Amino acid sequence: MSLCYSVLECQLIHAGVIKSANYTACFIGDRLVSAYANLGYDMDAVKLFDEMPCKDLVSWNSLISVFSQNGYIGNCFIGLSKMKSEMSVQPNEVTLISVISSCTGFRVLKEGTYIHGFALKSGMLNETKVVNSLINMYGKLGILNASCELFYSMPVRNLISWNSILMIHTQNGFSEEGIGLFNSMRRAEISPDRATMVTLLQGCSDLGIKRQAETIHAYICSSGFNSDIGIKTALLNCYSKSGKFTSSIEVFKEIETPDIIAWTAMLACYATHGFGREAIDSFHFMIKEGLQPDHVTFTHLLNACSHSGLVNEGKKYFEIMSTVYGMKPRLDHYSCMVDLLGRSGFLEEAHTLIESMPMEPNSAIWGALLGACRVYGNVQLGKKAAENLFSLDPSDHRNYVMLSNICSAAGLWSDASNVRALLKQRAIIRNAGCSFLEHRNKIYRFVVGDRSHPESEKIYKKLEEILIKIREAGFTAKTEFVLHNVDDKVKEDMINQHGEKLAIAFGLLVIGSSDSIVINKNIRICGDCHEMAKAVSQIESRNITIRDSKRFHHFANGSCSCGDFW
To answer: pLDDT tens digits, residue range 164-222?
Structure first.
C-alpha cells in the first residue's frame, strides 16, 4: 500500500480488503488511511478511519497525521481529545510531534503552548524528539527565550537539538550567538553534519565576518565536508557577503560539477560586487554546460545588469525569460527591471513598465522607483511612488526619509518638514545608520558623531589628517548630501562625522597596509562618503571595501568597482 501511486490503486486494494473480510486487522486499515492521505484524499482517509471496527494507537496517530498535514489544527485537537477520553488510548511522542508540527507550520502559538503543557503534565518532556519539536516550534514563532529554556533543560541533547537551536538563533538575527553555540557543540563532542555547517555559514554570512569565514573554511576542509556541494555553495555565499570576492571565485572553481544552485550563487556574487559582464559570461557558460536557469537565476542576472548599468542587456534577458525559457516574469524580475531603468535615468520608462505589469506592484518595485527619483531629483514621480509605498507599507521609515530627502534636495523645505512630521505622527522609529568594522575577531560599531570608542580621540585626529590630505589633492565635501536647511560650513561639519568616515579612519589606524579595510553598513552609502573613500584609496594607497544595503563597493587607486553607479 505504501507503493500506491494513484487513488485507483488504493481503491482496488481497499475493495479487496473488504471482500476478504480481513478488515479487523488494525494495521491494514492504518496503512489504507495513510495511503489515501498521502495521495491527497484526506476526506476518504477520515471516512475510512470512522468505518474501522478496530482502532489502536497507530490508527489514531495516522488520523492525527492526516489532520496535521492538511492544516486541520482544530481536528488535531478533537482527535487528541477523543482518543484519550472516548477510546482510553494514551497519546505517545508520535502523536504530539504531529500536532506540534502543525502548530509550527501554521504559526499558532496558543495551541502550541497547550501541547507544551500537555507534554509537561504527561511526562513526555523526557522524550528528546518531543522537546526538539517544541524548540523548533517556539523558534519558528519567534519566541527565542522559550526555545533556549527547553534546550538548556534537556538532560540529553542530540545532534538535532543542537542543529535546531543553532538554526533558530541564526533565523532570528542572533548569528553571533549561533557561532558561540557551534563552539559549545564541539566542546560537547557532538559531531556536526551538513545541516550544521550550512546553518553556521548562513549565520557567518549575515555577520559578514571574514576571519570567521576563514576559520569555518579550515574546519570544513579538516572535517571531510570539502566535497559537499551544498556546503561549498554556502561557503561561496559566505565569502561573498564577507567582502572576499576572490575567495568566492576560488571556492566555486573547487566544485567539480556545479549544480544550478551553485551557479546561481556565483551569479549573485558577481551581481552584489558589481561585476555585471562577468555575471553575463557566467550565465552563458552555465547554459553551455546544459543547465537550465530558473526564476532565481534570472533575478540575480537582472540584478547584475542593474548594478552595472547594462540597460540593453537587462532588457534582452528580461525578454528571453519568457520567449526562450517559457518563464513568466515575477515581481522580483519586474523590481530588477524598474531598478535598472531607474538607476540609468529612464524614470518614465520605469514608470510605464510598472503601469503595464500584469500583477499589482509591491513595495520593492515602488521602492526602486522612489530610489531612482532621489538620484535624479524627480519630485513629482517620487511623490507618486511614495504615496503607493505609504499605502503598501506605512510602517517602513525608509520611504518617509527618502521622500523627505527628495524634497530637501529640491529646496522644498516645507514639504520635507511635512513628511518628517508625518513620520513622527505615526510614531515610526527610524533605524540609525551604522558602520561596522571587524578587527581581531571583534566588531566595532560607528554612528554619526560617535565618540563611544575608547580610542575616539586618535580616530578623530586621524580623520582630520585624512581630510586635510584629500582637500590638498582637490577633494571638496559634497554638502548637497546634507539634507538640512543650514549653511554650508555646518553641512560640512555634519558630513565629516559620518560613521563610515570614522570607520575608515579607525581602519587606517589598526589594519596593516597590506590588508583591505572592510566596512559593513546597514544603509546606503552617501555620495560624499563614497567620494571620500575613492580619494583615500588613492592617497593612502589602500584597498577599501564597503558593503552597504545594496551592494559592495571596492575602492582602489581612486576609483570604485561600481563605476559611480549605485
So the answer is: 999 999 988 888 899 899 999 999 999 999 999 999 999 888 877 777 888 899 999 99
What is the rounded distance in angstroms from the CA atom of residue 549 to the CA atom of residue 176? 20
Query: Which residues, other chains included, contact 476 with Cβ-Cβ below 8 Å and sequence gap of 6+?
Result: none
Helix (H, G, I), strand (E, B) or coil at 301: helix
- 8 A C-beta contact, residue 304 and residue 270: yes
Residue 393 CB: number of other CB atoms within 10 A?
15
- Positive or negative, the Cα torsion across 212, 271, 335, 344? positive
pLDDT in tens, 424-468: 888 766 667 889 998 887 889 999 888 888 899 999 999 999 999
Report the distance separating Cα 291 and Cα 325, nearest Å.
12
188-to-167, 183, 381, 464, 563 alpha-carbon distances in Å: 18, 9, 59, 50, 49
Cross-strand partners of 554 = 545
DSSP string, 261-303: HHHHHHHHHHHHTT-HHHHHHHHHHHHHTTPPP-HHHHHHHHH
β-sheet with 435-439: strand ranges across: 442-446, 435-439, 517-521, 544-547, 552-556, 559-560
Residue written as cell 518638514? Answer: 417
Count of all residues that appear for the chain in the document = 566
Q: What is the Cα–Cα distance from 344 to 410, expressed in whole angstroms?
A: 20
Q: 41: which DSSP letter?
A: -
